[in-house]
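Box S1 | Example of a co-folding query
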Amino acid sequence: MRFEYNIEAGNFTKAGDASSSFKKILKQLNVDPQIIKRIVVSLYEGEVNIVAHANGGKVICEVDTKRVNIQLIDVGPGIPDIEKAMQAGYSTASAKVREMGFGAGMGLVNIQRCVNKMDIESAPGKGTKLFMEIHLRPDEKFKAPPESPESHGV
Ligand SMILES: Nc1ncnc2c1ncn2[C@@H]1O[C@H](COP(=O)(O)OP(=O)(O)O)[C@@H](O)[C@H]1O
Ligand SMILES: [Mg+2]
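Box S1 (continued) | Returned holo structure for adenosine-5'-diphosphate
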């Protein structure tokens, strides 16, 4: 099954819409609640990044019996130094974005902690593609998924 969502640039009221919609689908599919949480937190962080840092984009979620694959594809400035962006606390969020409570620099770190696989491809000046894969079978390694300070309510 494949689900696609559009992400509007700069619209923080809508950030989280794709993750809430996909959460409902995962519940209907009876996915383990801990795994749903990991998927939704990761998708939410990816969505917020498109809203905060890029000029809009889309999310493609694919589900089969064993795994969920998510692609977040945006149009935007890209990420010039991915290794740096992956560091805890690193953020280029604007003052305005920080005022709204985002920009702690923990989004990509959280995603990495929650997913089985993750990959970022970025072309400076063109955009970023973030891929992630989460296995649907419970895994001891992920017994206690970390909470994201930004993901209340998802
Ligand atoms: N989709 C994106 N497009 C451009 N830059 C991004 C994108 N996602 C992340 N980044 C860059 O990586 C940094 C770290 O991202 P993240 O860990 O989510 O922290 P935060 O969003 O709080 O800044 C961002 O500040 C930004 O510079
Ligand atoms: Mg972020």
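The longest strand covers residues 127-135. The first helix runs from residue 17 to 28.
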